[in-house]
């Protein structure tokens, strides 16, 4: 779904109803970081305001996890830190998503990396978007 610049940005409720949103979350939760980034990026271009910031946080955390797999530590630190900063104002449920949970897991990863741990095969829980569909 491509939006022209003349159309208004997606609202929060429209974002929640957009199938790309749930597809991006499913890819993210499977660890398909590159594909989830692409899906969230397509949505990001269709949003503004807080919705744009939320998606940017998801994008950056996906990129950070992608860098973990490539052992690009600088990329991990930059992307995860930026993602956490963008999600800082969402420390509650947004669109049924437990943002705090995502931030805690991501911050634990970031902390472990900054302490020199190799996380490519870590027992630490990976970034995961919990969503309440009920």
UniProtKB/TrEMBL annotation:
Transmembrane segments: none annotated. Coiled coil: none annotated. Keywords: Plastid. PANTHER family: EXPRESSED PROTEIN (PTHR34796:SF1). This is DUF309 domain-containing protein. The lineage of its organism: Eukaryota, Sar, Rhizaria, Cercozoa, Imbricatea. The gene is MYN1_Chr_217.
């Amino acid at each position: 779904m491509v939006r022209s610049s003349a159309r208004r940005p997606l609202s929060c409720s429209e974002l929640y109803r957009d199938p790309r949103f749930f597809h991006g979350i499913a890819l993210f939760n499977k660890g398909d970081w590159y594909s989830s980034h692409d899906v969230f990026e397509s949505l990001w271009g269709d949003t503004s305001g807080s919705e744009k910031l939320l998606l940017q946080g998801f994008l950056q955390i996906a990129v950070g996890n992608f860098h973990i797999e490539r052992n690009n530590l600088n990329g991990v630190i930059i992307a995860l830190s930026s993602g956490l900063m963008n999600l800082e104002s969402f420390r509650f449920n947004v669109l049924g998503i437990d943002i705090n949970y995502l931030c805690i897991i991501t911050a634990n990863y970031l902390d472990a990396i900054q302490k020199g741990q190799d996380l490519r095969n870590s027992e630490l829980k990976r970034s995961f978007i919990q969503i309440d569909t009920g």
